[in-house]
Design goal:
By secondary structure, the protein is mainly α. It folds into three domains: 79 residues, Endolytic murein transglycosylase (Dna Ligase, domain 1), CATH 3.30.1490.480; 86 residues, no CATH class; 152 residues, no CATH class. 48% of the residues lie in helices and 9% in strands. The chain is built from 15 helices and six strands. The strands form three sheets. It has a two-stranded antiparallel ribbon with strand order 1-2. Helix 2 packs antiparallel against helix 3, helix 5 packs antiparallel against helix 6 and helix 11 runs parallel beside helix 14. The longest helix has 24 residues. The protein is elongated and about 80 Å long.
Amino acid sequence: MSWAAWAFAAFLGVFVLLGVGLFLFASRVGPAAGQRFVVSVPEGKTPREIAALLAEEGLVSSELFMSLYLGLSPGPDPVPGEHFIEGGRTPSELRSLLGRSPDRPGVKVTIPEGFTRFAIAERLETSGICPKESFLAATSDPLLLEALEIPGLNGLSPASAEGYLFPATYPMKLDTPAREIVERLVREAHARWARLAESEAAGVANARAWLGWGRAELVALASMIEKEAAVADERPTIASVFYNRLLDPGFSPKLLQSDPTSAYGCLAAPTEAPSCASFEGKVTGAMNRDSLNRYSTYTHEGLPPGPIANPGEASIRAALAPAETRYFFFVAKGGGRHAFSETLEAHNRAVRGSP
């Protein structure tokens, strides 16, 4: 055999061995299983530099083989930007995630009615979709809120997308940019609102005529109904209590006195009100009475500054079509139900559990 033939055979052998090695490497489970990492891929990085980033985070066992795999194997190029990746992935899966391949793994994420954006952020992170900090930042990005046409109360700019992250079950791909998730949830909220506003056009018109309200105010009220109602058939009745307080000239001051609004103030702005320092999810009388809590409807008349959760269709419908009652008060009586009263005297008896 000639020298050229030997050289070609040697080259072919090395090539085959390298191919086999890369094939085996591509299916090898990486380290750091169960851990999650935020990897930022700068624009214009080479396969070698990206492999170094992954090795530095502890996501691959061999920087050299990852570099060769990214450079020589077919597949999507890594997309610049932030990536949220769980350890224990094979190089093939890492490439799919970094390239945001349409075929990358996905999960179904359920967002229950009444979840706040903070709870949604936690669920998205737990599901491997995006970091909670990134999601929260996207939900309060003024430019994104403007682009998505999210309304604010009294014509002001909204503080966040709270109230417009529609609760439903969504199929989502792992490592999806937070901005895309926000856009998707808000688009769903817009679509649901359009259908409800058409079917409940009289309710929209009444809210405008009675109180000068638009969508922003109605969604804020719906979020309160969502947090107060544990039983579906009570939603319209709870809505009627809030409307009665706002519309009846004899009820003054116009305090809606809803505990969940105070709780949201402690969640959204924990350092503003001193009473929030001890907040662990349960509202106290001191939190309700704290005037520094902007969301307290015990110390501030009318609606809170914005929605306190993300309401579903039933609560939005209740805000558009409240029951006709003379109730001004309600208190929990067990089993998720409430006792409704027309007078303060009757309400106080209900609070004491007296007939």
